[in-house]
């Protein structure tokens, strides 16, 4: 069996030996133009040329949860596309989002500013009932985040494409319940895949429907947010601020207004990192399952874009 590896970002020097160790019977190599036909390709943001040339693939593995970069390519028909299914990301996402919510809710930035000035002062305790959290996307990551947030006794709403029933989460679905979901939420967490339906979904209209004093946490993809609309909603006072991990252009260009906005906290696309050993173990297990004709989790439905 031949396995090809290609990544626009990740370190092939570590991934290739890792995959080779997990698949001792296979020959694993870095994809180069003109490579011999392989059975499987393990990729992150591959060039179209790889897909055009590799016509014998039994499956294409994406070394991330989001497949939006793959969806921009001409994909081979009939070849299963398998994305990472958690692989250690959901716990990272839960800790990042809970941290962002709690930092905002407990006004920890304000305390930090006070103590930096040598000021010992209290802020009035706030009720978590006044901070309902809405999680957009109730998939592998969104469900874990929603449940983690619910453990801190915040009211939690969730929104997905299809109806769901999740303990401790008031579930909404579809465009018909979108406005109601937003109006019921004050803190909004985006964990949607980026598809044509979800691009620009956080815009002037949707942000205006959030409860006053709203707060946005985007940990999915930058193109969910209309940047100027988010800044306008914060500057108007309707929103209290935002924590952003993902951006339309990454790295975020130095001149972008997000860098210096006093009410925006940003991090460099790090809320849930692809963990190499967990990911390799998951991919190797799935290759073994596919070789044995067994089903695997994380199959992408190209028609719906995730
Ligand atoms: P899943 O595919 O498991 O979940 C996606 C969820 O979004 C599902 O609940 C789905 O609904 C819902 N959804 C999709 N389209 C719509 C729509 N049009 N309207 C309403 N709901 C919709 O994905 P994951 O949870 O694994 O990952 C989510 C995203 O997080 C990834 O696509 C990626 O972009 C991002 N990500 C970011 C990382 C970072 O470091 N910042 C790291 C990892 C992922 P339904 O359940 O009904 O299908
Ligand atoms: C992913 C990511 O999609 O890291 O896995 O953003």
Question: What do these coordinates show?
Answer:
By secondary structure, the chain is α/β, with parallel strands linked by helices. The chain has two domains: 2-87 and 274-291, Rossmann fold, CATH 3.40.50; 89-266, NAD(P)-binding Rossmann-like Domain (Rossmann fold, 3-Layer(aba) Sandwich), CATH 3.40.50.720. Helix content is 31%, strand content 17%. The protein is built from ten helices and twelve strands. A seven-stranded parallel β-sheet has the order 8-7-6-9-10-11-12. Strand 10, helix 9 and strand 11 form a beta-alpha-beta unit. The two termini are 28 Å apart. 37% of the residues are buried. The model has no long low-confidence stretch (mean pLDDT 97). Bound molecules: NADPH dihydro-nicotinamide-adenine-dinucleotide phosphate (NDP) and oxalic acid (OXD). Oxalic acid binds next to loops.
Ligands: NADPH dihydro-nicotinamide-adenine-dinucleotide phosphate, oxalic acid
Instruction: Report low-confidence residues grouped into runs of 5 or more.
Output: none
CATH class of the largest domain: Alpha Beta
Number of DSSP strand runs:
12
Largest sheet: 7 strands, parallel
State the share of residues found in helices, binned by percent. 25-40%
> For this structure, what is the CATH homologous superfamily of the largest domain?
NAD(P)-binding Rossmann-like Domain
Report the total helices.
10
Strand content: 15-25%
Q: What name does CATH use for the topology of the largest domain?
A: Rossmann fold
Task: Calculate the mean pLDDT score and round it.
Answer: 97
């Amino acid at each position: 069996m031949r396995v090809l590896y290609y990544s626009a970002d990740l370190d092939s020097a570590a991934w290739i030996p890792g995959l080779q160790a997990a698949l001792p019977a296979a020959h694993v190599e870095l994809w180069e133009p003109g490579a011999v036909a392989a059975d499987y390709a393990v990729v992150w943001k591959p060039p179209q040329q790889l897909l055009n040339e590799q016509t014998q693939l039994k499956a294409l593995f994406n070394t991330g949860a989001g497949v939006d970069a793959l969806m921009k390519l001409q994909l081979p028909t009939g070849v299963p596309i398998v994305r990472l299914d958690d692989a250690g990301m959901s716990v990272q996402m839960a800790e990042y989002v809970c941290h962002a919510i709690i930092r905002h809710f407990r006004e920890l930035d304000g305390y930090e500013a006070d103590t930096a000035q040598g000021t010992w002062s209290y802020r009035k305790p706030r009720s978590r009932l006044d901070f309902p959290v809405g999680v957009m996307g109730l998939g592998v990551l969104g469900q874990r985040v929603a449940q983690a947030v619910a453990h801190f006794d915040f009211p939690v709403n969730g929104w997905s494409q299809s109806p769901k029933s999740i303990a401790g989460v008031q579930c909404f679905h579809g465009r018909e319940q979108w406005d109601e979901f937003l109006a019921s939420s004050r803190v909004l967490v985006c964990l949607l895949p980026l598809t044509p339906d979800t691009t620009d979904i956080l815009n002037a209209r949707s942000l205006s429907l959030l409860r006053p004093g709203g707060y946005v946490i985007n940990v999915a993809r930058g193109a969910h947010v209309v940047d100027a609309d988010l800044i306008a909603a914060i500057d108007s006072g309707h929103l209290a601020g935002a924590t952003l991990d993902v951006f339309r252009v990454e790295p975020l260009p130095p001149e972008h207004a997000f860098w210096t906005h006093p009410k925006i906290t940003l991090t460099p696309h790090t809320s849930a990192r692809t963990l190499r050993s967990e990911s390799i173990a998951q991919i190797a297990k799935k290759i073994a399952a596919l070789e044995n004709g067994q089903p695997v989790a994380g199959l992408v439905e190209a028609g719906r874009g995730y």
